[in-house]
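Sequence dictates fold. Below is an illustrative record:

_____
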Amino acid sequence: MLTTACGVDPDLALRIGQDILQRAEALASMPTRDQDVLIAPFVEEVFDHKPLDTSLDLKAKVTLVVRNSLLEQAHHIGQLTSGIIPATEYAAGPLSHFLAARRRNPVDYRGPNPFTALAARYPRAWACLDALTVAFADGGRQPLRLPIASIPGLPTGDELATAAPATHDETAMVFSAIDPRFDQHLMNLLGKATGGDFVACTSALSRYSRNSQKLHYTLEFLLAHHATILTTNYLIRPNDVWVRRGTLVKPNSSNPTAGIAQTRGLTGTHRKLAQTITVYHLTP
């Protein structure tokens, strides 16, 4: 499909297929609860993806395994263009069958695993995403108790991006969403968090990264510095997490406050903070 329908270079298409298979094997080898935690950052962005009758759980797993694979690299360099969403949605059926087969007949997978040791390396991030999985059931608030752990330092050296800045925005770097490095925009965000009492607003957690290691590091750093994270449907604080009740709102990456401003289904502190942030961003 990638080569004939999307025009992806055959060598890259082969590497994408291998990467997706490894990611699927890695996910299938993990306990069910760990799988739920891993997909938590991506649930709010996929609830309306096709096939519409596909479970939310499977849609998020497709994002974790397929959308966040080397498929993103083909999208980034322009070989896949707008075909990334259909290609991702097409994978729902095959991935469902694959995971079901592995549940019936588990294999001793010992290959590359991009999800290994995340809970140990980023305990605050893991605890926060674990709490989100509980909050999904009914929405609203879920208490969060962060583990005691060392405070991570800012990325340095090879962890930093050296890509050229965007044409009209010198604070941003343009590179693949699965790039493990940190661009200037994300570095500025982490730097602001060190000052304390910081609220980070983004359309969805995946906007920080589609690389699970990097996403967990970012959450770990923000929570370690007592930052608050507000997305279109989530509120994450050092002592609790909140999820919008009822139908989720589609994140708008070009205008994060557009979704946050829709307070339907938000309650308590979550609703109040969303209203405050919206007024702040709309005030001249």
Notes: The beta strands are 140-143, 199-201, 228-230, 234-237, 240-243. Confidence is low (pLDDT under 50) at residues 165-173. The two ends are 48 Å apart (CA to CA).
